[in-house]
Amino acid sequence: MAENMKASYEDDLGLRSAEEVDATLQILMKKAEAGDPLSQFNLANAYRTGMGVPLDLVKSHHLFKKSAEGGAAEAYHALGNSFSNGEGVTVDLKQAFICFMKGAEEGNCACMSSVGCAYSRAEGVTLNHTEAIKWWKKAAALKDSTAQYNLGCAFDVGEGVAINKSEAIKFYKLAAEQKNVDAIFNLGNAYRTGDGVRLNLRMAVELYKQGSELGDTKSISALGVCYQQGVGVDVDQIQALHFYKKAGELGHADSQFYTATIYHFGKGVPVDKSLAMKWYKRSAAQGNVQALSNLGAVYSVGDSVPQDAREALKHWTKAAEAGLEEAQVNLGGLYENGADGVPRNIALCLKWYRKAAQAGNMPESLYRCGVALCSNGNPEDREGLSYIKRAAERGLPEAIRTLRGFNAVMRQF
Predict the structure, then answer these.
(1) Please, what are the domains in the chain?
(2) Which pTM value belongs to this model?
């Protein structure tokens, strides 16, 4: 019913001339004032989108409320969204949940799906995965694609239900048939990895293409990965760049980073440091930690830009605070040695080396922290030696050599 109401609204306002649009709005306004719930719903949408009337979220919220009170269950979903997003009203997740529940009890599948989401996220109600599954199943039975997708995710990871990959795939497929882009993307990933289905790289690519045609940036970016790595298609760096740029232009931060690295290192195209910087900055502006880290590296050595330790410090700090280990190591090194505009600071050096070493994903992190601790006035620092030993155990050549040197010195005493 909600889709029918939306279609009616679009048909009413999707006329050729401004005069006809205005005439239709006048009719809607009269009907809305007379208490017609459908007209109130459609007019609320007009004010919410600014179609034919000035954008007015307060009026939109008021009309959605009237429409819901007049018996339009679909309006409860729009009203709940306005409370969730603070559109024309202060954000109130409890009130949003009440609206979604009222619509759900009146049989609106979108509201049922939103009730499930509220229970799964503890938004306006106590966290309850069992209730989330219950409401998603009700909505999914009414062919709500969002609920089908959410059930797929629940069975995929075992949230509120036991992990069941076959059920996950079933619900992803049902949602994908209705062009749910998130389900299409997850289904593509399943075929790419063989998770719950037989490995089928060509099918994965076909699904990513479907998602791409629907404008999904995740699928567009995944096509870039497929062409760059030869997953289900022949390696084609030009095609990879095409899809990364397409997703990047639509705001996909990871694709912006991938585009930057292609230009930075000349992967299939001529090196273009200027374009690399443009894309790194766009990605970093969205908080992509790898882009922040690479910008720090570019500024630290003056790679196509003036060398600027303070800019390196700024970008590495953001990436390090977000938990990127390589940025923490680089930041520790910057403080260890100091640079123009960045005084040497052993306390901060050790702080960031320790954070990186505690993550322990890179043997270099362990080694750099260990050497810094041992160099800080105590060559027998137990903590430092333990980090160097761990790096050596993971095969880092310089750690092995350093440990042998320490052992040789100790044997002399």
Answers:
(1) 179-286 (1.25.40.10)
(2) 0.87
